Amino acid sequence: MIIERMKKEEKRAHLVLNKVDKVKKPVLLDLVTQLNAEGVFDEIFMISALKGSGVDDLTDFLAGQMEEGPWHFPEDQVSDMTERLLAAEITREKLYLQLHQELPYATTVETESWEERNDGSVRIEQVIYVVRDSQKSIILGKGGKQIKSIGGDSRKELEEIFDRRVHLFLFVKVREKWGDDPERYRDLGLDFNA
After folding, report:
1. pLDDT tens-place string over residues 6-64
2. What CA–CA distance (Å, rounded) separates 182 from 164?
3. In what order do the strands lie in the sheet with 122-130?
4. Could you give the CA distance from residue 190 to residue 193 in angstroms, rounded to a whole number?
5. What's the whole-model pTM score?
6. Where does CATH 3.30.300.20 sit in the chain?
7. Which CATH class, in words, describes the domain spanning 83-187?
8. Secondary structure E strands in the chain
9. What is the Cα–Cα distance from 34 to 7, expressed in whole angstroms?
């Protein structure tokens, strides 16, 4: 149906066939021959994203198709996010990486305070919000071990990004419906429609 519509509208495309490691080569080559005969594909790439085969050819091709353009941000700028929001996202990433099986994605991290210190370092206080009390104990871990590990990984990456010493303090609070808070979306530059 897609190929027929492309022919009708005289459109052309590049085709990427994934999971080629799951198909026997004679069957795959027959399929590629049939698709190529349709006359709507300029390039056909056979890849296995899982195993990485063919991916370099695809990314090289796509990079070659990109037109060079102006730099929209300074070369040394890591992100267009504010530092406060970036710091919260780094901590949230560490939270998920360490607790992905145990913790539902019903958590958020907010940078509550950001204090520039005289010695050039920064003191950051963040709150990890969860929706249930049982989630709080998972994040804290036995004797606070889990939250120390999350904080340590986050602090290390923040120091690399900001190229200075970071004093990071994490707190865990229960806020049952944090996802329904319009203020949270405004901070991210998004509109909230309840």
Report:
1. 999 999 999 999 999 999 999 999 999 999 999 999 999 999 998 999 999 999 999 99
2. 33
3. 108-116, 122-130, 166-174
4. 10
5. 0.56
6. 83-187
7. alpha beta
8. 13-17, 41-46, 108-116, 122-130, 166-174
9. 15
